[in-house]
Amino acid sequence: MTEPVATDTPNAMQVQSAIPEAELLALTDSIVEAMKTVYDPEIPVDIYELGLIYKVDIADDRSVAVEMTLTTPNCPSAAELPGMVENAVATVAGISGVTVEITFDPPWDQGRMSEEARATLNLW
Question: Could you give the C-alpha distances from 31 to 1, 55, 104, in angstroms and in order?
Answer without folding.
Answer: 19, 12, 22
